[in-house]
Automatic annotation (TrEMBL):
Residue intervals of the Glycosyltransferase family 28 N-terminal domain: 112-207
Protein name stated in the entry: Glycosyltransferase family 28 N-terminal domain-containing protein
Pfam families named in the record: Glyco_transf_28 (PF03033)
GO biological process: one example: carbohydrate metabolic process
GO-annotated molecular function: hexosyltransferase activity
SUPFAM superfamilies xrefs: UDP-Glycosyltransferase/glycogen phosphorylase
């Protein structure tokens, strides 16, 4: 399948192929990047950020917001050079991990969970992305449908089944539309003057005439080539 797919998208297929090699070669995986979470500065608008490692270096005008996640670029004792991933504050700078015996930042391993609810064509690039994140050392998992779930597992990625099938969902939706059209054809043959002033919908039709009806999550709201009139006109 990868060879067939590469004819359409050689870039994504290349990532998939190299990703499979990475799964079978633990030496090719880089060490996980170290990430930290800001736990200090909750009552002071964040923690102080400086331009250099020394505590006497110039201060940034902004503070690094409490709750922010940062990537460790360099660690010198209790001085941390960071790159901000989430939150507000200077994009990059130096901060103290502790102050007067209290933690200002704590290590916070970054985990990535990817949800893919689309088709196989939607899933292939997402799988390539997950493999890339895994190779970068991040703990990455995928949540997807049955077929794609097994495909992700074959690459050695932690994968979890959404307990759903796109094919079965499409089949069920098609059957619902067929039942709705049958109901529409039945109602359009009725003389509406008999029920003047009474809304005609699936539930009322079932109550009055015993017509089998199914309550649908989505229903046709406008006319189309297949359905000449709206299903429900309330």
């Amino acid at each position: 399948r990868l060879k067939d797919y590469s004819a359409h998208d050689s870039c994504s297929a290349g990532l998939l192929i190299s990703g499979r090699e990475a799964m079978t070669s633990p030496q090719s995986l880089s060490s996980a990047p170290t990430t930290w979470k800001v736990v200090g500065g909750a009552n002071s608008g964040g923690i102080l950020v400086r331009c250099g490692c020394k505590v006497s270096s110039q201060e940034h005008m902004e503070r690094l917001e409490n709750g922010s996640l940062v990537l460790e670029l360099e660690l010198a004792g209790e001085r941390l050079k960071y790159k901000r991933l989430t939150g507000k504050g200077p994009r990059q700078g130096w901060v103290s991990t502790r102050f007067k015996g209290r933690d200002l930042l704590v290590k916070h391993p970054l985990r990535v969970a990817i949800l893919s609810a689309g088709s196989r064509g939607d899933f292939q690039p997402i799988l390539a992305l997950a493999i890339g994140l895994h190779r970068a050392g991040l703990r990455t998992s995928i949540w997807t449908h049955e077929g794609e779930h097994e495909m992700a597992k074959s690459y050695g990625l932690p994968s979890f089944d959404l307990f759903a099938s796109m094919h079965s969902e499409e089949q069920e939706r098609s059957e619902e539309m067929e039942r709705a059209q049958e109901l529409l054809r039945y109602i359009t043959r009725m003389k509406f003057s008999m029920m003047y002033g009474t809304p005609i919908a699936g539930v009322s039709a079932e109550d009055f005439w015993g017509v089998p009806a199914q309550v649908m999550e989505h229903f046709q709201a406008e006319a189309s080539q297949r359905i000449a009139r709206p299903l429900f006109d309330l």
